[in-house]
Amino acid sequence: MDGSYTDLRIAWKGHSWRMQSAREGTDLVLLATPLPSTPISAIPPTIVFSVDFLWNQPGTALRHPDFIETRGASGGLPVYCTCQSPSSRAQSESIDILSVGHICGRPG
């Protein structure tokens, strides 16, 4: 196996989902699929992906309405999600987060 494809099934507190990863050239593709399950918790299943930079490495991440744009020493990299945006947002938010070393800040 060369690690170009992985398939993992996860069960937690009655929730079940499948995580698949693959490489397409230099791109990493992740697919999270909910599986039929009977939850034993009122907490809904939620997946959180964090876009950040390694300690003491300069870089920025900018949230756009339909993707996250990162820019580091090796250039820019867009991060896309095929998930549906929450309909409760009347307007999309943009938040610039600067990450330089151990300093993280939000404007405003």
What's the alpha carbon Rg, rounded to whole Å?
17 Å
Mean pLDDT: 76
Structural class label = mainly beta
The share of residues in extended strands comes to: over 45%
Helix content: under 10%
Q: How many DSSP helices? A: 0
Mind summarizing the main beta sheet?
5 strands, antiparallel
- Looking across the biggest beta sheet, what order are the strands in? 6-5-4-7-8
Oligomer: single chain
Q: What's the β-strand tally?
A: 8
Low-confidence stretches at least 5 residues in length (pLDDT < 50)?
A: 88-108
* Spatial gap, N to C terminus: 48 Å
Listing every helix as H and every strand as E from the N terminus to the C terminus, the arrangement reads: EEEEEEEE
Task: Describe the global form.
Answer: globular
Task: Walk me through this protein's architecture.
- Helix content is 0%, strand content 48%.
- It is mainly beta.
- The strands form 2 sheets. Strands 6-5-4-7-8 form a 5-stranded antiparallel sheet, with no helix packed on it. A 3-stranded antiparallel sheet has the order 1-2-3, with no helix packed on it.
- Strand 5 (67-72) and strand 6 form a beta hairpin.
